[in-house]
Amino acid sequence: MAREQLGICAEANLHASYLLCNVLDGQEAILRQKLLRIPQMLQRLAEHFSESMLTGLVAISSHYWDSLYPWQRPAGLQAFPVLPSEHLAVSCSMADLLIQVRSDRLDVNYIALQQIQQLLLANIEVSEQLSGFRYLDGRQLTGFPDAPQNPRGIKRRQAALVPAVDSPMFAGGSYLHFYRANLDLKHWQQLTVAQQEEILGFAKTDGKPLPAERLLPNSHLQCSLAGGLAPLPLLQQNMPFAQGNSQGLLVLNFSHQAERFAQQWHYRLGLNEGRYYDSLLDFYRIDLAAAFFVPALGFLEAAANGSLGTSSDLFE
Predict the structure, then answer these.
(1) Where is the Dyp-type peroxidase N-terminal domain (predicted)?
(2) Quick one: which H or E segment has residue 118?
(3) What is the DSSP letter of 12?
């Protein structure tokens, strides 16, 4: 069975750190060796600081994948979609790698990042270093519970991980869309709780869907449903951020099917016939976005030892 990187399906933590990195020219061969060491390093630290619940992952961007792993590409790996909408202005990041570290101890995050950066010092440049934190009892800065319709239990793996029947080469991996959404907190806080709930489609206290008579067609809930019936099979892993006068949400969406991301944005932007755009987008500005693939551990191992030619190397 393919072994996924532990940061994909991990439960929520108190602290998150993210590195967006650009790889220096000609580093692909040594980088294939070092990327395997990052999950191994995180596993050792997780065992040493067992109470911290440390997890993490390393992901390769859609534009850098062919340079690092030219033998085969995940079938659905594409750049973050650029969609025509006055409500969404995205600057796509050209970062080659995304490295995420999460735990319940900020000092353990620091130690892990320090060791990762020391490992990759000669091979990369860090273009962005971002930090997220748990807010209250797992809420966004809007005051609402984060991702109340997120899949739970075994459904997390089913939503996020590529099954072997679909792709033996990339089984246990996951397609990942990352973006930073800046919240217009001043104008959001001027709304009443009832107005906020109608924009989200959820109750502010417990995240339960509003009754049908209060559920608006342009609410976030309605615009996030596939065909208006059920949530798209995406696993959200969000963390609030605040830095200076900027605050909002760092969003990681995982899926076993890359086309789900384009569907998500078509629904939220009202690009499908007869649909409304997500009114929550009036309060967010997405200024950084990128698409990645998170390979399974078996894939990283096979790439590091040069045995990608045989798919049996991907399963242990």
Answers:
(1) 5-134
(2) helix 106-120
(3) P
